[in-house]
Amino acid sequence: MLGIIVQLAVSWLIIWLFEKGNLNVLGLLPTKQRLLGFCLFLLVTACCSCSDFLLKMYIAGQRWLLNPGLSAPLILEGIWWNVKSVLFEELIFRGVLLYILIRKWGMATGVIISAIGFGIYHWFSFEVVGKPVQMIIVFLTTGTMGLLYAYAYAKTRSLYIPAAIHLGWNLVQSVVFSQTVIGKQVFIPAEPALQVNVSYAAYYTMLFFPLVSALLINYRLLRKRKALV
Question: Taking the domains of the chain in order of start, what are their residue ranges?
Answer without folding.
Answer: 55-224
